[in-house]
Design a protein that fits this description.
This protein is mainly beta and about 280 residues long. It is built from 2 helices and 25 strands. Helices cover about 5% and strands about 35% of the residues.
């Protein structure tokens, strides 16, 4: 008879005596009450003033009901506009309060600042509707590399410079393939992805499991990776490109728990037995 809807005796805030809950109020203030001790008005006490609802409202079962002109979880904010108007001003175009990226205070959104410097956060707008993180190919809060370096980020959308297209300006117009076709072709049978920009240093893991044979060929038009996963099977080949640009330099890769660092010249071939390989590369 003393269990609440969660099957907890007296909400863990009292003891059951003869089928009835006796709530624990050691301070004698009666702030814990209810049939199952489910109401705790201590939740209404403001940490700074130590008053119930900051003295500007009434508490019922742990919730503050504020007087006119006051709002907040503990009626701590004074505001001259109605609650309806507060909600209207903070509602984003998609119907969410501050786009679920901020806090509404008296009709104004305070956006969550994800920029650790505190200067100008990646989230902004009257209702926090703009999220600049959407402009980054790989989100890194310490990087200012928006739109792959080929466009301007405006309210979370990339406006690409001439010669570039794609959601994040990652695809050159000079490439005869569409973004989708380019991605599919780059993956090939081995599922290796296109990666990075052609004019910057990048790195990628080629694979993480052991291979008996691995050959990397750098030529003027493409970079080939050929590996034979199981002895006696047909070697698999993949071409590595960056946004349809051929890669022409490989700086290092690891093998047999050691590291080989070198610049691979055009038409050079490297044959090694690898446990794991990764490459750092630059474009033409």
């Amino acid at each position: 008879m003393c269990k609440n809807s969660q099957d907890i005796i007296c909400s863990n805030a009292g003891t059951c005596q003869c089928g009835r809950c006796k709530c624990e109020n050691s301070e004698g203030n009666g702030l814990i009450y209810g049939k199952f001790c489910e109401c705790d008005d201590r939740e209404c006490i403001d940490d700074e003033t130590e008053e119930i609802c900051t003295g500007h409202g009434k508490c019922y079962c742990g919730n503050c009901y504020c007087e006119a002109g006051w709002h907040g979880d503990k009626c701590e904010f004074q505001c001259d506009i109605t609650p309806w108007e507060i909600k209207r001003r903070c509602t984003s175009p998609d119907g969410k309060i501050c786009s679920n990226r901020g806090t509404c205070v008296c009709g104004e959104c305070t956006c969550h600042d994800v920029d650790p410097t505190g200067d100008w956060g990646d989230i902004h707008g009257d209702t926090c509707e703009c999220d600049e993180r959407n402009c980054k190919a790989v989100y890194d809060r310490y990087s200012d590399d928006f739109c792959s370096g080929h466009g301007q980020c405006n309210c979370g959308r990339c406006d690409c410079k001439g010669g570039w297209t794609g959601k994040k300006c990652e695809h050159p117009h000079s490439c005869p393939l569409s973004v989708e076709e380019s991605t599919k072709k780059c993956q090939g049978n081995s599922n290796l992805p296109c990666f990075g920009r052609a004019d910057t240093q990048q790195s990628m893991d080629l694979f993480s499991s052991p291979w008996d044979n691995f050959r990397l060929t750098i030529i003027t038009k493409k970079t080939k990776v050929m590996f034979q996963p199981v002895p006696g099977t047909t070697p698999q080949e993949s071409h590595i490109t960056a946004n349809c640009w051929p890669l022409t330099e490989v700086n290092k890769f690891a093998y047999l728990d050691s590291t080989l660092s070198r610049a691979v010249r055009i038409d050079d071939e490297v044959n090694v037995r690898l446990a794991k390989a990764s490459v750092a590369f630059g474009g033409l």
